[in-house]
Amino acid sequence: MPYVMPSHPAPPGAPPPRAGRGGRWSRGVRRLAAVVALVTGAALAGPGTAGASPAEPMADGARTAAALERVTAFGANPGNLNMYVHRPPALPANAPVVVALHGCTQSAQVYSDNSGLDTFADRHGFLVVYAETTTANNANKCFNWFQPGDTRRGRGEAASIRQMVAHAATAYGTDVDQVHVTGLSAGGAMTSVMLAAYPEVFAAGAVVAGIPYGCGVDVVSAFGCMSPGTDRTPAAWAQAVRDAHPGFTGPWPRVAIWHGDNDPTVVPRNADELRDQWTAVHGLGQSPDRTSTVGPNSTRRSEYLSAGGGSVVEVNRVPGIAHGTPVDPGTGGEQCGATGTQHFIDSICSSHWITRFFGLDGSTAPEPPVDPPTEPTACWTADNYEHVRAGRATTTGGHVYAKGSGQHLGLYNTFVTHTLKESPAGHYVLADGTCP
Fold first, then answer.
1. To 10 degrees, the CA torsion angle through 380, 381, 384, 388?
2. Of the four listed, 25, 63, 283, 436, which is most buried by Cβ atoms within 10 Å?
3. Please, which pLDDT band fits residue 436 given cuts at 50, 70 and 90?
4. Residue-wise pLDDT tens digits, 13-39
5. How do 299-305 and 311-318 pair as beta strands?
């Protein structure tokens, strides 16, 4: 598949792809084959993509690639990770920090070259710490977001990333109260880990095409987290976060969620579950307080506000893209990144909006509320099997029900087709023949 994928080794004995005739059975076989390719990394390692040298020319008018600074001896490093930094030429004292976590088959350098984060670090004066995993940890260079030995406080990869943050404060004089974390796919799932395991360290995080904390605990459950996704109550998701650091009472990190509407790899249901998890942690409801569209492609944003009116959780649903980091190559103020590898999708500069959400762009004026605060409408026409797979509906006893409204859609198969309208986010109603 042409986009970056989340982590995990292939399951033992996974069958090779098989040709087949049409119908649900063959669709299932093709899906299994795609997942096997996903977890072995074969779908990503095309020539001149993830393995490209950072010295090669970059596409789409991106800034010239610059080698990252390797940092050694940053701590005991129980997770066996590499640490790199991008340091702006004039890094101010007490500068903020953004920790960046790459996706599977990627490297710190590839993420630096294409995500656009360094553009805003140079513009606004913050340090970017790139954590990098290796094939010694995971054959596909995925962060082990589903392995308990790497996702618990004080253990494995999570502990190594925490040590990088501590080292940045002593070595570069960064501000320990302005530490943020973001990542793509497996790196997005690991972002969830860091926010839950070390909530006192991170002021905010941005999860791009990622997964809620506590979803996967082994390879088998990780597959289910990716697709069709795992549906739990907000209270259950929130308890998983609280259990990661018992006794911590806050303040909890602010969280931005980014997900492509057409992501077949980490299905969009995960954006809903992430929203449920972090709104519940903050003691908020799951209906947005403010909605809007942003960027050149009208990305749909839903914001969940604190009692003081600040956005503590936001969900950004990017239209028309599958699995990857949204970028918008160019030199405009809201543009960034490159699409020279298959890991990054020309759409909207997510790094610009993430930098703003972190409060690092110098902007102090809040975005204007939408009046009335109604969620932009999205419509989906598909068979019942696809609605369930995408997280728009659930199945019980061979029948399908729209998520949110609970409306009965008929049998769970590929022969029944309906249009569902989503408004507000995560709430679907039957809209055959009436959706705009």
1. -20
2. 63
3. low
4. 433 333 333 333 333 433 443 333 334
5. antiparallel
Q: Which residues does residue 257 pair with via DSSP β-bridges, in sequence order?
A: 207, 315
**Phi/psi at 157 (5° precision):** -60, -40
Give the number of residues written for the chain.
436
Separation CA 161–CA 77 (nearest Å): 8
Residue 64 has pLDDT above 80, yes or no: no
**Sequence-ordered alpha helix ranges (H) in 125-184:** 148-151, 156-172
Q: What is the pTM of this model?
A: 0.76
Rounded to whole angstroms, how far apart are CA atoms 223 and 11? 9
CA distance 151 to 192: 10
From CA 358, how far away is CA 346, in angstroms rounded?
22
Report the alpha-carbon distance of residue 34 to residue 40 in Å, rounded: 10
CA-wise closest residue to 398 among 414, 383, 377, 413: 413
pLDDT at residue 3 is higher than 60: no
Angstrom distance (rounded) from CA 39 to CA 36: 5
Q: Which of 185, 302, 350, 423 is catalytic?
A: 185
**Is there a catalytic annotation at residue 185?**
yes
- The dihedral built from the CA positions of residue 321, 324, 330 and 333, taken in this order, carries a sign that is positive
Q: How many helices (H) and strands (E) does the chain have?
A: 11, 18
Judge contact between 208 and 185, C-beta under 8 A. Answer: yes
378 SS3 class: strand
Distance CA 413, CA 25 (A): 11
Segment 269-279, tens digit of pLDDT: 999 999 999 99
- pLDDT tier, 182 (very low <50, low <70, confident <90, very high otherwise): very high
The token pair that represents 252 in the structure block: 């909890």
- Main-chain phi, psi angles of 110, to 5 degrees: -60, -40
Which tokens hold the place of 225?
């987290």
Alpha-carbon distance 400 to 402, whole Å? 7
Mean pLDDT of 172-189: 98
**DSSP H or E stretch at residue 117:** helix 117-124
Per DSSP, the residues of 192-251 read HHHHHH-TTT-SEEEEES---TTS-SSHHHHHHHHTT-----HHHHHHHHHHHSTT---P
DSSP reduced 3-state for 411:
strand
Q: What phi and psi values does residue 231 have, to the nearest 5 degrees?
A: -100, 115
d(CA 86, CA 284): 36
Helix intervals (H) in 255-395: 269-281, 350-357, 384-389
pLDDT at 66: 79
- The answer to whether residue 297 scores a pLDDT higher than 60 is yes
User: Considering the chain, what is the average pLDDT of its residues?
Assistant: 84
